[in-house]
Amino acid sequence: MHCPNCGIQTPETANYCTRCGEPLREGLTKPDPTEAIAPEPSVSQIENQLRYMLPMGTPPVPLFAGYLGLFSPTLIAAPFALIFGTIGLLQLRRRPEAFGHGRCWTGIIMGLIFTVLGIALLINAL
Length: 126
Hints:
Elements: H1 43-50, H2 60-70, H3 78-94, H4 101-125
């Protein structure tokens, strides 16, 4: 479908022209340009949302601590998760603008739980 006003090709399902805003179907009126339009999200808002999914702004040690915390039920990774989580928190204390506190705490808590469990299993086996 072509816009009768500017001639641009528009999708068949469009009600208004994407370039000039002209109505493409009968019975529609041209939108009022003074009406409030939802603002575009800023770059910082998008980065804020993405950092929960991607490790943006996270130093390597907290990132590694989080993954070790996830693998700490294997009992081998648990003490390392505890160590890297603690080191990561110390690094983040020196860099307050960096992210990764949650990953560090995941490493510390999971590492502590499964390190204690591993030691208890080891003592019980002896």
